[in-house]
């Protein structure tokens, strides 16, 4: 009951006119910046850090929270409409959201995303209030072998359900893992695949990889076919969800937080792994398997709800342990230190008003996001009425601006278009794009966790399976890989019985 008492006090802080104004500013700024490819919520919070010097700490963090949630939603808007993820958490949304937009259902996809963000945010923030201490204590016990096993599960789960064949899925994953190797070795400091240039020493930013494979690759693919198959503007569609849409989305909206919140809460978590797993889960459970890859609304609703709940989960380890699990949490940690505040187990005692005001503002920001963006869905969808040549020329322009904004280096633009050519080739030969993105995002982290686990076991492979959690995950991986064979064996054993 103490948590609810503190939360009510937090609402008293968050609902003052001044703090409501800062929450609204944060949500609007976050959505606007999230729409721009490459300029995600982390960069937005970092850019606004100097602006908040004159503000009190509570107002500053309420605005930062609004930017965080707004940035994640803005990223999904361009994923759906333009196949251009504004940040890594919005990558999965493009897989089903963009085909929906191309078929004239962009408004429904945006509405499903907005409501998914609302549901995921509300459930995730409620879980933050109720479960923060318990989740934080469990998270401390998760070691390197468990992290590596989780990442392997994400690799296998995604590559086994996407594309025309598993071979193509694993080929795409190999491309992503290769891109993830570029840069300096995190342990030895040796350069890998940098071709002697210092510009690649820090590796290739995930946003550049995602924007290159999705936006540039898609634009080049469309340009290559426009001359042969001229197409008019894409229809906008009606701006509401039908009863059939609601019937298909309410379960993914509720399942999303179950996947997203725990992953966001554990150190080295974030929204990437849970959104991928949410997509795989919804595809497995869907009754409309023929629509996947062509615009299944569950593939938008589930990952968006998951991403929003994961955003709430990241604040658990950041506030209770002082461990940032995402780039935004890392920037917010720097902001706490800027105000002379050290997140950790004692934060809830020493800065009660600030922490509970921040948590209450998450509820407020989630409601503001829904109120502001749900009516805007048909307005955003009207972007699709632009003629195709102008639309994709604009995508290439904003993709280039976003890539340059990441590091301010012209080499990033060259890398962007080289990766775009790889994306074009992948579309030409039928390789799914998602495993490559997953490999580039999680590959470096998986390598680091594997090395840590092997170092702890003096190089013995048993170090990768020395915990109950890792063993359980590997059993799931084996079942995923063996399932097609098991399904054939079951079908063969049943066939004689049906004939008899």
From TrEMBL:
It comes from Actinomadura fulvescens. InterPro entries: DUF112_TM. Pfam families: TctA (PF01970). Keywords: Membrane, Transmembrane, Transmembrane helix. The keyword Transmembrane applies. Residues 20-438 form the DUF112 domain. It comes from the Bacteria. The lineage of its organism: Bacteria, Bacillati, Actinomycetota, Actinomycetes, Streptosporangiales. The chain crosses the membrane at residues 20-49, 61-82, 109-135, 147-164, 170-188, 200-223, 259-280, 315-336, 356-377, 389-407, 413-442, 463-486. This is Tripartite tricarboxylate transporter permease.
